Amino acid sequence: MPSFLLHRRVHRASALCLGAFAVVHLGNHLTGLRGIEAHLAFMQAARVIYRHPAVEALLLASAALQAWSGATLLRRSRLRNAANPVIALQHWSGAYLGFFLLVHVAAVLVGRGFLSLDTTWYFAAAGFHVRPFAWFFAPYYGLAVLALGTHVGCALHRRLVSTTQVPPLRQAALLLPMLGAAVAGGLIVSMLAGWLYPVRVPPEYLAPFGG
Fold this sequence. Notes:
- The structure is a single chain.
- By secondary structure, this protein is an all-alpha fold.
- The protein has a single domain, classed as 3 helical TM bundles of succinate and fumarate reductases, CATH 1.20.1300.
- Helix content is 76%, strand content 0%.
- It has eight helices and no strands.
- The protein has helices at residues 3-30, 36-50, 53-77, 85-113, 121-125, 134-161, 167-193, 203-206.
- The protein is globular and about 55 Å long.
- The mean pLDDT is 89.
């Protein structure tokens, strides 16, 4: 099997695993619309599954494979497809998702392993409440959700190009995930920043930021 096809298959397989987790994770964040306690309760229930050692190992392996295969595919195809705006958008969103995966997973592992913090809502929110870190964390989280919706939308659009001759359907497949992700990202950032309701972050979560 040509290595390019192998990388694509690895990328798709790891994406399915991470995608299932992303749906749960984003749903967990959005339960925060009902309050922090609702978010924490959802998280405790979901952790029974995704914190199981075998499942967590699979998720970590999938994150590593996703970043590696994505970087390889991007390097090999970016010049050949540079003139296609949908493919270019898929590349840029994928590049940001790779960056986010590496930084976010590393931060969670450091928080749990070295700082002895329970990486809950407060771990994610802490940076929003110590200046000037909010200037980084607001776009960091918001763009991650938008990039996910964009990447999915681009993939759906490209698949429909070969299966349908209805342009509005292809456009909807691209734009609806992006719109949904933009709304979800805005809500998540607003909750973490305390713009929708007061958020009091415990001191141990603020300490790594000098708060």
